[in-house]
Every structure is written in structure tokens, then in C-alpha cells.
């Protein structure tokens, strides 16, 4: 039996007070710089995640826009997808925001955000809209193998830049880093020469 006079075992370590530094001391400056650096790293990481998520959303859209039985799209079909589906995907939500707003009231934050997104995307399409080269069969085949998770895999694809001002103009913005794309491009250049 435990005698009532014995108390819980005491720990051997001493309680130390938190060190307080003079605000103008060198150590306080070091600690402040460490905290600022940590805050900057966290902020940069959050911005990167947001940027990559927007990039992934665009590629997920084009991933689902390709019919499974199609090997590659024509340039006209690619322009139709961008112009009639991608650029108009926010129109319904914007109209709903406009109808919810009463007369004489300022625009809602959501309406302003949607209008800004629509304006930016239309301007991007006018000046040059970068998409995976869905007119290239090898790129489409690689694109279908993507697991829709991260942006790392997307760097190996071939990309083209299309614009609304000249529907026949295509600029290869990134040639693609996958071996099958390099081999096919080398084979095509041998046949041209």
C-alpha cells in the first residue's frame, strides 16, 4: 500500500525562465531576422501553391476537353474549345451576381473578381494563350497519362501559344522534354531536310 505521506515523484530538472533580450541587442536583431525569414518563406510557399493550383485547373480543363477516341485536335477545334468553353465558363456565375445586385448598389467583391478574371483571360487569348499542344498526337498521348495531381509532369509536355487575332498562327513555346517528343521532332526534321 502507498502511504499517504508520500507525494508524487519530483522531477530533477529546474524550471528555467525564458530569456528576455534587450530590444536593441544583437541577439534580439538575430531573432527578429529569423522570424522575418520564416514569414517570407511561408508567404512564398502559399503563393506558389495558389499559382500551381490555378495552373493545374487550366490543365485539368484541357485534359477533360479531349475526347478519348481522338488522337489529336485540329487547330480550329482547339480555338473553339478555348473561345466557346474556356473563356465563357464564368459567364453564368457573373450573370447570377449581376441579377442578385440591387439597383444603385456597388458591385460585389465576387463580381469584381469574376470580371477581372474574364478580362485577364480574354486579353491573354488575344495576345497569346499557352496550352499543351493538343494538335500533336504524341503530346496528347503523354497528356492522357498525366494523373491530374501535380504540375511536375506537365513540364515534359510540348506547349504551343495560340491567339485570337490570327487563328492560323501557332508558336511552339516549349518543345517538350520527354524522350518520345525529342525523338519524333528529330525524325520529322530528318524527313524535312
TrEMBL record:
Biased composition (Polar residues): 1-10
Pfam families on file: Tma16
Record region (Disordered): 1-26
Domain of life: Eukaryota
CC per GO annotation: nucleus
Gene3D superfamilies assigned to the protein according to its UniProt record, in alphabetical order: Translation machinery-associated protein 16-like
PANTHER family referenced in this protein's UniProt entry, alphabetically: TRANSLATION MACHINERY-ASSOCIATED PROTEIN 16
UniProt family annotation: Belongs to the TMA16 family.
Name of the protein described by the UniProt record: Translation machinery-associated protein 16
Organism: Clathrus columnatus
Amino acid at each position: 500500500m502507498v502511504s499517504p505521506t508520500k507525494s508524487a515523484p519530483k522531477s530533477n530538472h529546474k524550471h528555467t525562465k525564458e530569456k528576455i533580450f534587450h530590444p536593441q541587442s544583437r541577439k534580439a536583431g538575430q531573432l527578429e531576422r529569423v522570424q522575418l525569414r520564416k514569414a517570407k518563406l511561408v508567404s512564398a510557399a502559399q503563393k506558389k501553391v495558389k499559382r500551381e493550383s490555378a495552373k493545374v485547373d487550366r490543365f485539368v480543363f484541357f485534359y477533360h476537353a479531349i475526347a478519348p477516341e481522338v488522337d489529336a485536335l485540329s487547330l480550329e477545334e482547339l480555338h473553339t474549345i478555348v473561345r466557346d468553353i474556356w473563356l465563357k465558363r464564368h459567364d453564368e456565375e457573373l450573370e447570377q451576381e449581376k441579377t442578385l445586385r440591387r439597383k444603385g448598389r456597388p458591385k460585389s467583391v465576387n463580381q469584381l473578381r469574376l470580371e477581372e478574371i474574364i478580362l485577364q483571360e480574354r486579353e491573354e487569348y488575344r495576345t497569346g494563350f499557352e496550352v499543351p499542344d493538343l494538335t500533336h498526337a504524341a503530346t496528347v498521348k503523354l497528356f492522357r497519362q498525366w494523373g491530374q495531381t501535380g504540375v511536375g509532369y506537365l513540364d515534359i509536355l510540348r506547349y504551343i501559344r495560340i491567339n485570337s487575332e490570327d487563328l492560323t498562327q501557332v508558336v511552339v513555346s516549349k518543345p517538350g522534354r520527354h524522350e518520345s517528343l525529342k525523338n519524333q521532332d528529330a525524325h520529322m526534321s530528318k524527313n524535312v531536310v
